Amino acid sequence: MKINLLALVFICLGTQLLIANDGRGQSISEVMITLECKEAKLRHVFAKIEKQSDFRFAYKREQVEKAKKNSIMRRFISYYQVSANY
Prior knowledge:
Radius of gyration: 22 Å
Largest sheet: 2 strands, antiparallel
Strand order of the largest sheet: 1-2
C-alpha cells in the first residue's frame, strides 16, 4: 500500500514537470533605457541602469574595477546593446 502511494506521488510530480510551460518574461533586448556616459566606469553604468529599470546587479568590486572605461552616448538603447560594449 505504501509503495503504491509513493509511486502515485512520483507519477504526479513527473507529470507536472512534463506539462510545465516556458516563462514569458520581457526579453533583455526589449528593455529600453536612455544612457549617456563619457569614459564611465562600469559600476557607474550599472547604477544608471538600475535607476531606469528593474535590473539589479550583483558583482565583485575588484572584477568591475578591472573593466575598461567606455563612452556611451545613446538615447533609447537596449540593455543588450549596453552589455555588448563592456
